[in-house]
Amino acid sequence: MSEAASSQRPILVQKFGGTSVATAEARSALRARVRDAIDAGRSPVVVVSAMGRAGAPYATDTLLSLLAGFDTDPREADLLAACGEVVSAVLVAHELRADGVNATAMTGADAGVLTDGRFGDASVLLVDPANLTAAVRAELVPVVTGFQGVSASGETTTLGRGGSDTSACAIAAALGAVAVEIYTDVDGVMTADPRTCKDARVLDALQYEELFQMARAGSKVMHAPAAETAMAAGVPVWVRNAATRSPGTLITDAERVVAERARAVATAVSHADGIARATVTLPEGAKRVASITAVFGEMAGAGVSLDMFTPLGDSLALSFDEARLPEVRDVLDALGMRYRIESGLATVTLVGAGMHGVPGVMARIAGALAAADVEILQVADSHYTISVLVRADDSRQAIQALHDEFELGG
To answer: Residue 344: what pLDDT?
Structure first.
């Protein structure tokens, strides 16, 4: 095939998660997917995660566990964490070549992934596609380390949990790819976590914004910044099972999907465990507004993301990731605020493009949860979501109740 012909082939980005590269059998399925893309007239660009999950020798959590007990340097922790994807990329490139596919391993830096330099949770600023484009034109399949990039000062940075999804979508946007395929160990995006909902089913299609809201609300199928990146670029995304031939879920804003989703009030139920709530006592009079402003400002300065925040008369209720409890306490103590902390909570979120402007959705949620004997502690909503804060022990009942009420099991 000539360079001109190769350059005219549409680019397809294929991302393979940890379970999809963890075993020889899984990598055989990966190679078959790459071959399928080539046979279909595509130029594949492969993005890989670290091999396996915690306990596997090269999994990210396993690597980071080597630093347990140390006062960890964030820069060096990112250097270590990035090694897992390097192992995957090199091995997959070697196996593809042994299978007759010309391939080359690339780090995130090699692939032109430039980040903002925040260690452990960096954002992708841009992707310079020059090296990737040159590889494709040379009839090579780039095998890129996901989850990582390089700062303007040349430091290796990682993108946070699930960051390989974001690598794939950012690379696809920079290359003008026809689509991104996210390969995982489930058959697609589901209406709820099947571990918590007995009749959860795979969705055929959904809108970008719905996927983004599901990811923000705790769904583990795709990294939230990845959904946001794909949405901004308008790159169609398929979520598929690497081990099966199930069609998977298409994420797009194509007209038919927008129309289909608008007819359904709800699309899915997402949830997040490990939530805590601080109920802060506010001063009376003119100082109240100033105190609320100070709390929000200092939380932002401490890097604490608030899931919900509700003024309740003489108090302010704030919910957040339980892991940020030390920072929350530090902020409130520094401000001299009186407060009460509750742990062991969860958020359960109903997601759907069709709920905006539809009366009675909250009434149905409240009725379904009351019938399931689940107490609602706090509520937040947007055009696409309604989230309720509940006790963690009640989350499974809440998920099933909402799934049943909105007939998401089909």
So the answer is: 96
**Quick one: pLDDT at residue 4?**
37
Judged against a pLDDT cut of 50, whether residue 5 lies above it is answered with: no
pLDDT band at 355 (very low <50, low <70, confident <90, very high): confident
- In order of 281, 291, 333, the CA distances from 315 in angstroms are 4, 11, 16
List 241's β-bridge partners, or say none: 184
**Residue 113 to residue 115: CA distance in whole angstroms:** 7
Instruction: Please tell me whether residue 142 adopts helix, strand or coil conformation.
Output: strand
How many residues comprise the chain?
410
Instruction: Evaluate if residue 94 carries a pLDDT over 50.
Output: yes
To the nearest 10 degrees (0 to 180), the angle between helices 208-216 and 224-233 is: 160
Q: Which residues of 75-88 are buried (b: 16+ CB within 10 A; e: fewer)?
A: eebbbbbbbbbbbb
Question: pLDDT tens-digit profile of 284-297?
Answer: 877 888 999 999 99
Average pLDDT over residues 358-369: 94
Q: How far apart are CA 254 and CA 257, in angstroms?
A: 6
Of residues 354 and 230, which shows the higher confidence score?
230
Residue 202: partners with Cβ closer than 8 Å, 6 or more residues away: 186, 187, 188, 189, 190, 246, 248, 249
The ranges assigned to domains in the chain are 3-185
Instruction: Report the sign of the C-alpha dihedral through residues 295, 300, 303, 305, in that order.
Output: positive
**pLDDT band at residue 259 using 50, 70 and 90 as cut-offs:** confident
Handedness of CA 206, 16, 26, 178 (dihedral sign): positive
Crossing angle of the two packed helices 325-334 and 287-301, in degrees rounded to 10: 140
Q: Look at residues 35, 34, 29, 41 and name the one whose alpha carbon lies nearest to residue 14.
A: 34
Could you tell me which residues are beta bridge partners of residue 350?
A: 269, 386
User: What strand order describes the sheet that includes 141-145?
Assistant: 103-106, 141-145, 43-48, 11-16, 179-184, 237-241, 249-251, 205-206
CATH architecture of 3-185: 3-Layer(aba) Sandwich (3.40)
> What's the pTM?
0.89
Contact of 124 with 59, CB cutoff 8 Å: no
